[in-house]
Amino acid sequence: MSQRTAVSQADVIVVGAGLAGLVAAAEAADAGRKVLLVDQEPEQSLGGQAFWSLGGLFLVDSPEQRRMGIKDSRELALQDWMGSAQFDRDEDFWPRRWAEAYLDFAAGEKRAWLHQMGHRIFPVVGWAERGDGRADGHGNSVPRFHITWGTGPGVVAPFERRVRAHVEAGRVAFAFRHRVDEVAVEGGAAVGVRGKVLEPVPPAFERGTASSRVEVGDFELRGQAVIVTSGGIGGNHDLVRKAWPARLGSPPASMVSGVPAHVDGRMIQITRDAGARIINDDRMWHYVEGIRNWDPIWANHGIRILPGPSSLWLDAAGKRLPAPNFPGFDTLGTLKVLRESGYDYSWFVLTQRIIEKEFALSGSEQNPDLTGKDVRGVIDRARKGPGPVEAFKQHGEDFVVADTLTDLVAGMNRLAEVEPTGPRIDEGELRRIMEARDRQIANPYAKDAQITAMYAARHYRGDKLSRVAKPHALLDPAAGPLIAVKLHILSRKTLGGLETDLSGRCLTSAGVPLPGLYAAGEVNGFGGGGMMGYNALEGTFLGGCLFSGRTAGRAAAAAL
Ligand SMILES: Cc1cc2nc3c(=O)[nH]c(=O)nc-3n(C[C@H](O)[C@H](O)[C@H](O)COP(=O)(O)OP(=O)(O)OC[C@H]3O[C@@H](n4cnc5c(N)ncnc54)[C@H](O)[C@@H]3O)c2cc1C
């Protein structure tokens, strides 16, 4: 180990320069505090996961919703939130209060606050997580997923701009390649952090790729407050499996990773060791429509398909999933059903007509038109489908494209022999399922719940325009070619975490604040230690980072 770095002093130390950390640092510096923003990654990865995100934000009763004819209200959103969260534990005291405060934010000042920083929204509101079919159950009663014009980078930009202005003014200093290994506690209060300086990355280092963990020095940073904004555990599949709850079946042996390697979860244990309490660590949010990225950025890189409702969904053995497990309806409900199937993958079967209209891919790099604010590109997408989806169709190892069902099944059976392996699909049985489903198409109503849901979705203008294909027979050659997609479980979000009060102060197991220690963002379950309870309504993660980061930054600054 070479030299020990000088001990540095600040008012507030923020651990993690993702979205929550940037927001917290900007707010604390706005209040006149000196801030050190520490991250194990290099400057190239500033913004963390949010940079890669689609920039989808949960807003309630927004002008965009009203323009699309959507009637929403805080009351309806509260019903949806509580029906999804299903809070049922003593530990849910603070998460529930955070949920209520967050709903006030999402139905109140969130949009205007972002707007005055230059944030803009794509006008067609998406309908994510349509739910489990019960009015008071899980899911969004109405479309609420507002995509940022500029996607993830467009969410990060205003806060990066504010932080960099503070750097210029000498109020914020960055400490990249500083990996925190310990929160220093003296006299019962957090007084700083200690850790290792990691070797510099080569100049050609690319954002999102794994960086070296070679240590070149020690550091100790001292401050009057420490805000932990280090993200979740989704990049560490051993931790995901360890925390996997029995209610979702057995943990999958095979998963793809929806997050970069820095989402390693280490800081959670480190902060616990300092005396903070972790709650709801068995609550997590992983997707069931993951595909292997044919052009990966990080190891085992998976992309989530954001599906419209029309694809036929089969388990690995070819059995159609029971209602209401339709694409885009109930993420964890479907995950549970799939874990019970005994296999780590499932199948979508669809047509060219469906893929063109209904497949979107999550991630800023998979949406160059929206990320690049390219109006022409967005118009082309509406006419021809997104270019990156076509690239996956051609190069993705999980895709089978065929003119006949016989060839499609042969392709599916070839993929069933590739890890994770599974049973062969029986062509006769699949034909029977598809013909039975196709017979329901002749009338604009049906007894098949999925087809009923497709017709219902098209009553929403946004879906009819750009998300739900006109119902048609899957076996109609004019709608072809046929497509099958092998879907993997994709690790993503951590819904539990460091328990905090409404000021973002970390609590001890005695339920009292640990002086000087705060948390925000995914490490904090996006507020309180899990403000989404068991299920998310989508677009609530970035929003949770904004709200909890803002709260912790302001509170830490005010407490000094
Ligand atoms: C592809 C993708 C699409 C998404 N789409 C959406 C969407 O549309 N809508 C939505 O709401 N959410 C979305 N999300 C989720 C959302 O982006 C994340 O939940 C959110 O950005 C997490 O932010 P964070 O600041 O809490 O953590 P992170 O972004 O993970 O940042 C944490 C930072 O802490 C650093 N760190 C960790 N440990 C240490 C340590 N010991 N020492 C020093 N530094 C440390 C890390 O290096 C990292 O830079 C998406 C995520 C991904 C990956």
From TrEMBL:
SUPFAM superfamilies listed in its UniProt record: FAD/NAD(P)-binding domain
Name under which the protein is recorded: FAD-binding dehydrogenase
Annotated ranges, domain FAD-dependent oxidoreductase 2 FAD-binding: 11-542
Coiled-coil region: none
PANTHER family for this protein: 3-KETOSTEROID-DELTA-1-DEHYDROGENASE, KSDD-LIKE STEROID DEHYDROGENASE RV0785
Transmembrane spans: none
UniProt superkingdom: Bacteria
Keyword Flavoprotein attached: yes
Keywords: Flavoprotein, Oxidoreductase
Organism: Nocardioides eburneus
NCBIfam families in UniProt: PRK12834.1 (NF009472)
